[in-house]
Amino acid sequence: MAIPQSPHTPDGPGGRLRDARLFVTQAVQTFRATGALVPSGPALAHALNRFVDERPDPTAPIAILEAGSGTGPVSRAIAAHMRPGDTLDLVDPNPRFAEHLRGLLGTDPDLSAVADRVTVHESLVTDLGTDRRFDVIVSGLPFANFTAEEVQEILDYYFAVLRPGGHLSFFGYLYTKQVKAIIAPRADYLRQVRSGWVIEDWVRRYGIGRERVLANIPPAWIFHLRKPEEGTES
Ligand SMILES: C[S@@+](CC[C@H](N)C(=O)[O-])C[C@H]1O[C@@H](n2cnc3c(N)ncnc32)[C@H](O)[C@@H]1O
């Protein structure tokens, strides 16, 4: 079968293969920021959409932020779950990924159907500013590669722009700490332990659910957090 040649054609094996190729190239060049070797699979993308589907008011449109969109596997799933009036902001500082995402707005069936309500930002998520508010944040950032201070800054930012009662879903990969304990330099292992403590602290305070997604390469965990309504935090 001939593989379509358009740089952004997403459908079928040709498009998915090109997405994966771009992701792998960028992962090799910028592993600390990319944090994975292959894009997320459909099971993980679907599970990250939980609070795009479960809404307090099913008739009210919501504002969705996806941080670290990469080649867009989760963005496409979000687009497929969006309802009339919903908006979606996609953020990735990698220029190759941002260009790819802009292309998908014209070619991917799900993203093009909502393209007038999707904005692509080529920036760090924390540079988006605090004047906007979101009901749902889906984060693909590779926290396991970040320092504790960076993770704290990003989680603080998410909760600054999340509406009270809003949800944050983020993921990481199972067993990275155990693998690092064996093969990584000690300083890198200890950095991940410290950033893990920051995540545990947020999950302890705001966590409302955790999932394992074994049908992903590599297998992943997801944490779902909820920002308390104003005046209800203990
Ligand atoms: C593990 S990849 C996830 C990509 C995609 N969401 C997926 O599931 O396949 C992490 C992505 O986060 C982006 N990223 C890293 N640091 C970021 C930051 N501070 N703000 C926004 N995106 C960031 C990287 O460029 C990369 O595309």
UniProtKB/TrEMBL annotation:
Record bears the keyword Protein transport: no
Methyltransferase type domain ranges (all copies): 65-168
GO biological process terms, semicolon-separated: methylation
Protein name: Class I SAM-dependent methyltransferase
Classification via SUPFAM superfamilies: S-adenosyl-L-methionine-dependent methyltransferases
Transferase found in the keyword field: yes
Pfam families from the UniProt entry: Methyltransf_12
Keywords on record: Methyltransferase, Transferase
UniProt cross-references to InterPro entries, sorted A to Z: Methyltransf_12, SAM-dependent_MTases_sf
GO molecular function: methyltransferase activity
Coiled-coil residue spans: none
